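Allow me, if you will, to draw on your knowledge of protein folds for a short while. The matter concerns a single protein, recorded as an amino acid sequence and a row of backbone structure tokens. Could you please explain, in whatever detail you think fit, how the structure tokens follow from the sequence? I remain grateful for any guidance, and I place the record below:

…
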Amino acid sequence: MAAVHVVRRLREAGDWQREMDSILETLCGAMDCQRGILFRLRELPGQGFAQSVAAYWINPRFGGELASPTVIMQSVVNSDPLLERLAEDERQGKIFAGHTRDLEGFLRTDFEKQHIKSFLSVSVFAHGHLWGTLAVNDCVNEREWTDEEEATLHIVALAIGDAIERSLSDAHASEVIRRTMLQASLDAIIVIDETGSIIEFNPAAEKMFGYQRSDILGKDLLDTVVPEYYRKGYVSGAEYMSGRGAPMVGQRIETVTQNAAGEVFPIELTATEMRVADRRLIFGSIRDLRDKLRAEEEIGRQREKLHQNEKMAAMGSLLAGVSHELNNPLAVVVAQSTLLHEFASDPQTKVRAEKVRAAAERCGRIVKSFLSMVRLHPAAQAETDLNQVVRAALEVTAYGARSTGIIIDTDFASGPLLAMADADHVTQVAANFLINSQHALAGIGGDRLIKVRTFRSDRGNPCFSVEDNGLGVPEAIRSRIFESYFTTKPVGVGTGIGLSISKSIIERHNGNVWFEEVLPRGARFVVQLPAISAGAAAAGETPSRSSGLRHALIIDDEPDVAASLSDILELMGIKSRIVPA
């Protein structure tokens, strides 16, 4: 009955190994034995068997007296005649039964140490090969084993062999599925054992890390894919994965790794611990984050660009209204000071009138420059004097330099320095460079100087440069200074887009912009625009006006402006008529 019960359980069990301890308890209870053991045997060519314990049960009443079975690796060939004969009998499936007192040599010594009085053992075969042995021990009495007891043990051994064959077939199918999943996975998969050695490395991992599977298997994780500065203090890859205080196992974390070329890059790591045949394995699924981070960076760049555009649009609307409100009274001031200069008989009054007009015109230029810097319009290139462009940028940024004690040294090319350019956009570039120089000089002791120069290159190209005697640009980051959002300034001081925008503006003009080191310290940024062609210069000439015009119609929504303009036209001999706008 015990054999029938055990066979049924083995056939119904999803995992026969989990049932073995309980099955041995049932078997030993039915046969009145104190211990049952299932041994796993592995053939060692030329050496005998390597024997290990697959499952065992000991009667709790004798737990303190009977030693638990241990792994035995015993060479039986040419070492002990009895062991050699026993090995051959097990290969042939013969029953091994008897009393310990009848044994000799190693077996008697070993059995006496385990308090075995009588023993009964049968072979377990799977797929026609010796898999192991099933044994029961009587540790209390010497006994003669009956035919029924031998048959019971033999039936159970056959059922175990059948369960092993089924599990091996299932294991083969599972292995095929596992291998297919590893091969098809788009994520890199690395499996390490308890020593940190790599035991699995799928094709995605080969592509990501640049190692061939055959070359990396058996190597320690720590020495291959972990960056050197992360290895400090760890003994093995297993210890690294287990972590200290914040273990990686069981977590989804973002960290960095290293490929065969030594390149360090960001990854998302999901590590899982597995127990396989009493082994502790760590399964790591790895996803390269470089594309994700690049996409996030681009989204951030576009979001910041949109934000800046919205700010510039709002500022443009504000300044457009402000400039309109300022320009009208400034126009009146300019016109009236001009009239005062013309009609004044006192030289001192003329001088004062000229000063008023010059100040008002300067205010007008500043308002115009501010407005031009925030206008969002496509580049409209026309014949432009770079001298005037740079002067406009200086006027916009003059207060920042003056209030911080920075000296501005200018050197302008003689005569007009003409280029085909959008004056508003190039003014923005020059102002960006001037503001950057002011920031670079913040906190610098001694004389702080910004040199501004306009000139023609050796090939006749119109150019301008902005130079300061600040700390300069470190060599390590010079290649990145024109990248979007790259900045060395503190939070709140600049957005990292000024130089990038400046570069894109000049490139749209088919020009060049570059950085030059200034010794002993400092930085110089140079802009070069294409030389204006003869055809463009001719196209830009102002056609002559007819001198026969003697009447003008003035339309303006500001009466004071219209009246001032009418007074000036009258001085020129032109009759005018004012029509309210």
In short: Residues 551-580 form one domain. The first strand starts at residue 35 and ends at 44. The radius of gyration is 47 Å.
